[in-house]
Amino acid sequence: MEATMTRTEPRPLPRPAMTPPPAPPLPPLPPVDAVIQQWPAVATARRRLDAVRDVTGRAATLAGAAAAAAGLVTDATGAALLADAALTGAGLATLRLWRPDGHQKATASVLYLMPGTGLAALLLAERLVTGIHWGEALALTAWTAATWILRPARLARRMMSPPPPPAPTPAPAPAAVDGHPVARWWAQNVALDGGAAPGTVLEEIEQTGTASMRAVIRSAATGHPVPDISIRRLSALMDIPEEEIGIGPVPGRGAGLRRLTIGTADQHQDPATVWAQRIAPAAMPGAVLTGVRVGRPGDPAAGEAAPDPEARS
C-alpha cells in the first residue's frame, strides 16, 4: 500500500487596496465686491409707496377702532365686518403675490392676519353680546393699542420686501480754506480726520509779535461746536512749548468758535519806555529820553512838530 503526499504551496494573501491620499484643500476664493445698481426713480417710487402704506395702515387702525366703538352702543357691525374682511383679504393677496413658499411667507401671512382677525372677533362679540360690557371695552382698548404700537401688518410687509433705501443725503461742501500759509498748514496737518482738531478751519490769523500770533478756530459744520483740542498734540505738531499755546472762547460768540493764541504778544511801548528798558541800561546808564523828533533832518516842519530830543544824566 502506497501513500502519496502532495505538497500544496500557500497562497499569497491579498494585498489591501491602496487608499489614495486625500486631495489638498482648495484655496479660499477671494472676496468679490458686487455693486448692485440702484435706479433712483425706482427707489423714489418705493419710498413713496411705503409712505402711502404707512398712512393707510394708520387710517385703517383708526377706522377699525371707531367701528368697534360704535358697535358697543349699536348693533350695526355687519358693514364693519364686511369691510374688515375685504381689506384684510385684499392686503393678504398682495402680500403673498409672486412670493416663494416657505416659513417666511407663512409667518408674514399670520402676522398680517392678526389685526383683521382680532377686529373681526371683537365685532362678532359685540354683535352677540347685547349692551355695553366692560370686557368688550377692555378688548377694544387692547386691540387699538397693540395694533397702533406693534403694527404687525407693517412688520409682515417688511419681512417679505425689505424697506426701500433712504434718500441719499448730499455730502457737505468742503470748508473754504483761507489762503494764509498757516491756515493751509492747519488744514493739512491738524483739521484732517484723526488729527488734533478734525473738521475745523483756522481764520482771522494775526501776528501779534515776532514769535506770537492769534487766530480763530471755526467748526466746518454749521451748528456744531469746535471739538476738544489737545494742546499736547498741537505742541508736538508745532514744536512749541505747551505753556505758550492757549485755546479759549471768543468773547460774544458761541461754541462754534474758539480763540487760539500762541506765544506772548509784544507790548506796545513808546520810545521813552524802550529807551529806558532796552537802550539806556546798556549804552547810556542814567540817561532819560525827554523828546522825539519825527521827520527828516533839516525839515522845518519836523522841527515845529516836535522838540529836539535831549538827554541828561
Automatic annotation (TrEMBL):
It comes from the Bacteria. Residues 297-313 have a biased composition (Low complexity). Residues 1-32, 292-313 are annotated as: Disordered. Residues 11-31 have a biased composition (Pro residues). This is Uncharacterized protein. It comes from Bailinhaonella thermotolerans.
